Amino acid sequence: MRRTLILTIAALAGLLLVLLLLVRAPDPHPAAPPAKPVVRAAPAQTVAPPPAESIASKPAEPVAKPAAATELKPPDPPKPTIAALEKPADADAPAEDGAGENGDDAEPEDSGPPAIDTDHATDLLADMIARQETLSESDHLPNTAAQTLKKFDQESADANWSESAEQHIESTLDAWIGALPEDAQAHLALVHVECRVSLCEVLAADNDPGSQSERSQAGQEWQQAIGSLAQQPWWRELGFVDQMTQVSGAEDHTLYMSFLLREVKTPPATEAPPDTGNPDGG
Predict the structure, then answer these.
(1) Is the pLDDT of residue 69 over 50?
(2) Is the dihedral angle over the CA atoms 196, 164, 203, 247 positive or is it negative?
(3) Backbone φ and ψ of 46, nearest 5°
(4) Cβ contact 221:215 at 8 Å
(5) What phi and psi, each to the nearest 5 degrees, are found at residue 273?
(6) 8 A C-beta contact, residue 138 and residue 150
(7) Please, which residues bridge with residue 199 across strands?
(8) Predicted pLDDT of residue 11
(9) Which DSSP state fits 258?
């Protein structure tokens, strides 16, 4: 009985295996998929709107966002143009003329006259001297400056004295100018120094007359520098005894013409030997 049952089960298993093999065998001519049935649209039906009360009483349901909408990425923002990327031309430029917050760094509008032009000052002094010479010829009234200038023109240099005197005067006045503040140095120039037998002519110019009053109070006026020459040790050694200065103005320049007077000692005249003659009168 048991053996018969085992054989029956084995036969059924073999039959099942054969059926599975037959079912899985590939079909050399697969059949085309069946066409989808065409579904006709149902005729539209008119549906009456629900009563207003039911709409109001029914809570609004949140509208579900379509799945496609959530999957789409937002469009990229437009790329900025080259003009938008460039900084304005004056964005990093330093502020000018009081562009600061309070304008503390702004330079004053009037910074004073420019540095003195020595060549131009020389021309102005030459014109002044020419007017003095013309005045001395046409005016018969006493004029110390004109007379001194005329005397200077008539003299010649002293080979043993003039060069040494010029060097002492120039070095002393250059040192005085070098001790001034820089803003004062830029407006003052020693133009010319020339010594002759009994006179030395010193010419100078200043193109900042607006500050002369302040400099004069501080002892920085040119006339004070000329006056201080008499305190130099070489003043007496070179025989100087006096000085005079004439001040004139032209084209916003102050012109100085100074003369230093030297005492020239005339050697005593040699007395002629007495005439002894012939004692006998013969």
Answers:
(1) no
(2) negative
(3) -80, 120
(4) yes
(5) -65, 145
(6) no
(7) 261
(8) 82
(9) E
Residue 186, φ and ψ in degrees, nearest 5: -70, -15
Q: Using CA atoms, how far apart are residues 94 and 225, in angstroms rounded to an integer?
A: 44
Structure token pair of residue 274 = 């007495």
Select from 237, 129, 225 the least CA-distant residue to 180: 225
What is the model's pLDDT at position 145? Answer: 82
Greatest C-alpha distance within the chain: 219
Predicted local confidence at residue 212, as pLDDT: 76
Q: In a 3-state reduction of DSSP, which class is residue 135? A: helix
Residues 6+ apart with CB under 8 A from 74: none
Q: Which of 85, 123, 135 is nearest to 207 (CA)?
A: 123
Measured CA to CA, the distance from residue 185 to residue 206 in angstroms comes to 10
By the 10 Å C-beta count (0-12 exposed, 13-18 middle, 19+ buried), 240 is classed as buried
Q: Give the pTM.
A: 0.56
The DSSP H or E segment spanning 272 is none
Distance of CA 25 to the CA centre of its chain: 98
* Residue pLDDT, tens place only, 156-203: 999 999 999 999 999 999 999 999 988 889 999 999 999 999 999 999
Q: Dig out the tokens for 224 from the structure.
A: 């004070």
pLDDT, mean of residues 224-244 = 94
Half-sphere exposure of 17 (CA within 13 A, CB side): 6
